[in-house]
Amino acid sequence: AQSVAQPEDQVNVAEGNPLTVKCTYSVSGNPYLFWYVQYPNRGLQFLLKYITGDNLVKGSYGFEAEFNKSQTSFHLKKPSALVSDSALYFCAVSPLTGGGNKLTFGTGTQLKVEL
Amino acid sequence: EAQVTQNPRYLITVTGKKLTVTCSQNMNHEYMSWYRQDPGLGLRQIYYSMNVEVTDKGDVPEGYKVSRKEKRNFPLILESPSPNQTSLYFCASSVGRGTYEQYFGPGTRLTVT
């Protein structure tokens, strides 16, 4: 069975500092990996995805994520955080083969960026 | 504007009273899905549909039904709601399965008393 772990319920960072939101996954075979963001009272919005190729993936709003196969991780990063980045972030995984319809989400990490 | 719409956005009902939450997308997407979001549990898939008349169970299908008679619509039906179905529900759609990002609706907050 596939699974996603987001070990931190909340991450606090000062505006202008780099941020990292952690994600590790478990899946049979190679994964498709996604990050989504949820702002208050809104649905989830797609940020970025890893399918294949370069391990560093760039996405919306200056976010990027690094795929590390040996550590089964896909951490979300941003060089300089903004207060407007404060939101709930979800990592998700889908297997490359078999069961590709099924997207499994982590429990979410609340990011709080303070002045 | 490309979007996924859900109705109603908020619903308070009583145990056992059948209800339907509608979902519609205007992007001609083949794949649609329903999720519920609960604190500490993230999003869990209820049902998904690969195309018209093709549906399958997700992780938590008990107590729910779906139908896909038209490509754009994917209603979620609770035949006999119970308090443990109190949750925030999201509909999503995508071009296809696997590699494609999903587009989410704004959510429906359901309370069952």
Radius of gyration of chain A: 14 Å
Overall mean pLDDT of chain B: 94
Determine the fraction of residues in helical runs of chain A and give it as a percent range. Answer: under 10%
Strand count of chain B: 11
- Main sheet makeup of chain A: 6 strands, mixed
Number of helices of chain A: 0
User: How many strands of chain A?
Assistant: 12
Structure description:
- The complex is a heterodimer of chains A (about 120) and B (about 110).
- The model of chain A has no long low-confidence stretch (mean pLDDT about 90).
- Chain A is globular and about 45 Å long.
- The N and C termini of chain A lie far apart (about 40 Å).
- With about 120 residues, chain A is mostly beta strands.
- Chain A is built from no helices and twelve strands.
- In chain A, the strands form three sheets. In chain A, strands 2, 5, 6, 10, 11 and 12 form a six-stranded mixed sheet that branches. A four-stranded antiparallel sheet of chain A has the order 3-9-8-7, with no helix packed on it.
- Chain A is about 0% helix and about 50% strand.
- Chain A has strands spanning about 5, 10-15, 20, 25, 30-40, 45-50, 55-60, 65-70, 75-80, 85-95, 105, 110-115.
- Chain B is mainly β.
- Chain B contains no helices and eleven strands.
- Chain B has strands at about 5, 10-15, 20-25, 30-40, 40-50, 55, 65, 75-80, 85-95, 105, 110.
- In chain B, strands 2, 4, 5, 6, 9, 10 and 11 form a seven-stranded mixed sheet that branches. A four-stranded antiparallel sheet of chain B has the order 1-3-8-7, with no helix packed on it.
- In chain B, strand 5 and strand 6 form a beta hairpin.
- The interface of A and B includes residues 41, 49, 100, 105 and 106 of A.
